[in-house]
Amino acid sequence: MSVLQKTLKGAKVAHFKNTENCESTPMPLPKEVCISMSQHMGPPCNPLVKKGDAVKVGTMIGDSEAFLSAPIHSSVSGTVSAVEEIVTATGSRCQVVIIQTDGEQAVDEAIKPPEIENHPEFVKAIRASGLVGLGGAGFPTHIKMNPKNLSEVDTLVVNAAECEPYITSDYRTIIERPQDILDGIAAIKKYVGITQVKIAVENNKPQAIEMLRRLTGDDPSIEVCSLKAIYPKGAEKVTAYETTGRVIKEGMLPADVGVIVENVTTTAFIGQYLRTGMPLVTKTLTVDGGAVAEPKNVVAPIGAHFSDVIDFCGGYKCTPKKLIMGGPMMGTLVFDDTYPVLKNNNALLAFDESQTAVYEEQPCIRCGRCIQACPYHLMPRMIEKAYESDNIPMLHKLKVSLCMECGCCSFVCPAKRNLTFTNKMAKQKLRAATAKK
Ligand code: SF4
Ligand code: SF4
């Protein structure tokens, strides 16, 4: 039996796309930005600036020689006031560059559109732009654009499913920047050698589907795929399967089945970057939740403190009970609003009391709903038991490492068991045991 079945499951979560008609609006320049050196999957960057240095918009301030990395650029012009460590949302430590803005927003003289003739130059330019997956994963884009089996990759899947509740920033990209998306697609087709493109959109966004079909109707190599709006249609393996029928098995990458999956805003950035040469220095994020006075889509300089972003949204209308970076299903809780906007930050949710009910776990009633809901047909309750009894061979057998922590199993469990969290811990336990071995 394959990992992904013919009938992919998932959960019917409420969409709460309250901000879908809110145009992306740039926030005023804050007095200070705090730019993290850890904004991508892989080792963090090393700061290239020190206290007292002057920087401009687009100045490179961090880089790394590690394979899995992407450089980091200043989002403002001003003066570096500190290079120091902060505790991240996950409890680890990372370096940040703090810059006091001068209000000028002078652009670095080195910024100019890249000159690209071939695939290696395209990959080099994408790396220089600092681009990472903007849908949340933060995977460096230049690595995706340079798969080992390049000649076998024939399909680009543009992921515009945006299945997490509340988040509408990708939807706004489609409505506001369709030409950037088309330019990004054209560049990837040309330099990576792609022959077919699938744009995946959930069917709760009919205006986006209609617009994309109208704009791509003359191009037989591009298909706009309307996906049933069941969470998590935007998960990479799920989107790839739903649009191409190709199964990405355990341990495989999309390129292993000839596919590159790229988030729609990431694709739009490529189109914009090739035209302007401005690296990734701003991020559009959906700001919503019961504690936010005026929910909206905000274009923020990378490194803006969440408190400044919230102020632009009218501040808090009550004390938030929970601050989430990302969506409610897969986002990360943050402990306070001093934390900065990151490249892969697509939402900031401030939930009030009514949105943060905590339920007590009850004994499992063996209803099987968690298995039915899992897109990968894992067995979350069995994983929980194997985790609790330290049964490493069983965790391996149950393929816990496939779990993408989508939250569907916990969402549907009538006993309110915290299965997703247990899966996360079980993955760590299995990894540690494997490393020890
Ligand atoms: S969190 Fe993991 S086990 Fe639970 S439904 Fe998602 S993929 Fe399946
Ligand atoms: S959904 Fe909850 S109650 Fe039902 S089998 Fe899974 S863990 Fe048990």
UniProtKB/TrEMBL annotation:
Organism encoding this protein: Anaerotruncus massiliensis (ex Liu et al. 2021)
Keywords: 4Fe-4S, Cell membrane, Electron transport, Iron, Iron-sulfur, Membrane, Metal-binding, Repeat, Translocase, Transport
Class of the enzyme per the UniProt entry, highest EC level: translocase
Cofactor: [4Fe-4S] cluster
PANTHER family the UniProt entry points to: ION-TRANSLOCATING OXIDOREDUCTASE COMPLEX SUBUNIT C
GO cellular component: plasma membrane
InterPro entries: 4Fe4S_Fe-S-bd, 4Fe4S_Fe_S_CS, Ion_transpt_RnfC/RsxC, Nuo51_FMN-bd, Nuo51_FMN-bd_sf, RnfC_N, Soluble_ligand-bd
Membrane topology designation: Peripheral membrane protein
Assembly and oligomerization: The complex is composed of six subunits: RnfA, RnfB, RnfC, RnfD, RnfE and RnfG.
Function of the protein: Part of a membrane-bound complex that couples electron transfer with translocation of ions across the membrane.
PROSITE patterns: 4FE4S_FER_1 (PS00198), 4FE4S_FER_2 (PS51379)
GO molecular function term, any single one: electron transfer activity
Residues the entry annotates as binding [4Fe-4S] cluster 2: C374, C403, C406, C409
Protein name per its UniProtKB record: Ion-translocating oxidoreductase complex subunit C
Domain 4Fe-4S ferredoxin-type per the UniProt entry, residue ranges: 355-385, 394-424
Gene3D superfamilies tied to this protein: 3.30.70.20, NADH-ubiquinone oxidoreductase 51kDa subunit
EC number of this enzyme: 7.-.-.-
